[in-house]
Hints:
By secondary structure, the chain is α+β, with helices and mostly antiparallel strands. The protein is built from five helices and eight strands. It has a six-stranded antiparallel β-sheet with strand order 1-2-6-7-8-5. A hairpin with a 6-residue loop joins strand 7 and strand 8. The model has no long low-confidence stretch (mean pLDDT 93). The chain binds octanoyl-coenzyme A. Octanoyl-coenzyme A binds next to helix 1, strand 5 and strand 8.
Amino acid sequence: MRGPTTSLTPPADAVAPARHSGAPAPGEPLGSHYDHCFGCGGKQPHGLHLEIRAGEGVSATAVLTVREEHQGAPGLAHGGVLAAALDETLGALGWMLRTIAVTGRLETDFVRPVPVGTELHLRAEVTAVHGRKIYATAAGRAGGPEGPLAVRAAALFVAVEVEHFTENGRDEEIRAAMADPDQVRVVRAFEVNP
Ligand SMILES: CCCCCCCC(=O)SCCNC(=O)CCNC(=O)[C@H](O)C(C)(C)COP(=O)(O)OP(=O)(O)OC[C@H]1O[C@@H](n2cnc3c(N)ncnc32)[C@H](O)[C@@H]1OP(=O)(O)O
């Protein structure tokens, strides 16, 4: 049986990503795609509350403030929380492409420990596209955009149809999201992965 390839290196015939003409200008917030998203949702009390901004080309930035509730070891961020912040920032790139895509593979390098109180400056960018496959990288730097590298990731996102969410999500959340009178929020809840 042949499983999916696990390579995060784009194939030779991959193409450069194209920033969507409707993507926000560099520096503008992309806004939360879903209020209850763990990564960016304003109504998610346990979430990371990332405010993701458009970058140049097909890139995005965010700042994670590492809080006490993010600890893994005393005074240090949990690696899974850092990976989630990278994943969320990478996931926002779908909005820059206007492609519905979900994380298929996320490979994370934890380069240095990240103390509570750190402002981790995240930057993600799409490097190549091959059919439904979107290749991207991300990095988190401590203290500022040029600060020391703390975490980095390489990822493969896979473009999906909206049914990925409507057929797999739990009914009550799907119904609630669909019933939102704000049609822009309805579109974003399902166009960018929850
Ligand atoms: C603002 C936005 C915030 C977003 C939040 C952050 C993003 C997220 O966390 S999304 C949630 C986490 N991800 C998920 O739940 C996805 C769960 N997985 C799935 O649904 C499926 O496995 C899915 C959709 C990724 C792929 O399934 P399917 O649609 O059947 O595609 P499939 O035909 O298997 O693969 C398509 C291509 O991708 C490749 N591929 C698929 N999975 C992988 C993988 N894990 N590693 C490497 N390559 C892969 C395949 O090899 C294939 O390549 P090719 O076209 O060259 O043959």
